């Protein structure tokens, strides 16, 4: 019994210590960013999202100095990752907003965060491919690496780490009738996301081409604005979202 009491006490101490560190980090960020933070909406592998009581309908996405791989099975801290991810996302969303794409991005707040519309995320990854490479070749034996898709090929994957994000057809997605923020994802919503995904890829493909870099493939996600019900390009778009070949040469690709 005494041993059990000691273990319980140690567990309580550890839990309190973790909670205290977490509260301290939130307080430090709140003071540094100048934002009054509300409840935590969600915390993922590479970011945490908070409500903003002074900005109804908006949230703040705070990036972490963390990289992941293998559906989150491997993760490592990487100093400076948050600032790079946040700067990239802010630049990309600003470019897309200016091009007329409806996104959740409102403004860059500081080096590690940006303010966005509060959305219920659609649990689907939308992947656009210009060149056949990577996982596509494993799933489609017989296709030669380097095969060029024209128009770009679109694929959808249901977000489920435990089952390695299974690929879904458009018909499966419509049939699933996913409920997101009070909206049923049906044929109309799917078509909006399909058209937007293709347009986003073409905009960014041209942007990267101006820097002598080929956009090979990329993934994006969408959310439903909890106030307006609109489908918005959401989440974070950064260097983990795409594959780039400088000068169109795979050998020059860097992680």
UniProtKB/TrEMBL annotation:
GO terms for molecular function, please? Answer: ATP binding; carboxy-lyase activity; phosphoribosylaminoimidazolesuccinocarboxamide synthase activity
GO BP? 'de novo' IMP biosynthetic process
Query: Ubl conjugation: is it a keyword of this entry?
Result: no
Coiled coil start-end: none
Please name the pathway.
Answer: Purine metabolism; IMP biosynthesis via de novo pathway; 5-amino-1-(5-phospho-D-ribosyl)imidazole-4-carboxamide from 5-amino-1-(5-phospho-D-ribosyl)imidazole-4-carboxylate: step 1/2; Purine metabolism; IMP biosynthesis via de novo pathway; 5-amino-1-(5-phospho-D-ribosyl)imidazole-4-carboxylate from 5-amino-1-(5-phospho-D-ribosyl)imidazole (carboxylase route): step 1/1
Q: Enumerate the UniProt keywords alphabetically.
A: ATP-binding, Decarboxylase, Ligase, Lyase, Multifunctional enzyme, Nucleotide-binding, Purine biosynthesis
Does the keyword section mention Lipid biosynthesis? no
Q: Which Pfam families match?
A: SAICAR_synt
Which InterPro entries does the annotation name?
Answer: SAICAR_synt/ADE2_N, SAICAR_synthetase, SAICAR_synthetase_CS
Q: Which PROSITE patterns match?
A: SAICAR_SYNTHETASE_1
Report the GO terms under cellular component. Answer: cytosol
Domain spans labelled SAICAR synthetase/ADE2 N-terminal: 41-249
For this protein, the record's CDD domains field holds: SAICAR_synt_Ade5 (cd01416)
Family note: In the C-terminal section; belongs to the AIR carboxylase family. Class II subfamily.
Protein name, please? Answer: Putative phosphoribosylamidoimidazole-succinocarboxamide synthase
């Amino acid at each position: 019994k005494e041993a059990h009491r000691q273990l319980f006490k140690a567990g309580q101490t550890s839990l309190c210590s973790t909670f205290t560190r977490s509260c301290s980090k939130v307080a430090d960020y709140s003071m540094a960013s100048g934002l009054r933070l509300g409840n935590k909406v969600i915390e993922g592998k590479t970011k945490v999202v908070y409500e903003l009581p002074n900005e109804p309908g908006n949230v703040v996405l705070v990036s972490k100095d963390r990289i992941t791989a293998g559906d989150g099975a491997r993760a490592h801290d990487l100093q400076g990752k948050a600032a790079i991810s946040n700067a990239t996302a802010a630049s990309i969303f600003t470019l897309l907003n200016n091009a007329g794409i409806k996104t959740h991005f409102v403004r860059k707040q500081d080096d590690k965060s940006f303010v966005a519309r509060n959305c219920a995320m659609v649990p689907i990854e939308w992947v656009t491919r210009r060149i056949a490479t990577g996982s596509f070749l494993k799933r489609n034996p017989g296709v030669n690496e380097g095969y060029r898709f024209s128009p770009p090929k679109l694929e959808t994957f249901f977000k489920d780490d435990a089952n390695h994000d299974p690929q879904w057809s458009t018909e499966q997605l419509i049939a699933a009738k996913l409920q997101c923020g009070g909206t049923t994802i049906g044929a109309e919503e799917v078509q909006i996301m399909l058209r937007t995904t293709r347009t986003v890829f073409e905009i960014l493909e041209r942007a990267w081409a101006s820097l002598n870099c080929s956009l090979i493939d990329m993934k994006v996600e969408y959310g439903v604005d909890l106030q307006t019900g609109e489908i918005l390009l959401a989440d974070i778009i950064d260097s983990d979202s795409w594959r780039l070949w400088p000068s169109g040469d795979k050998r020059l690709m860097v992680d």
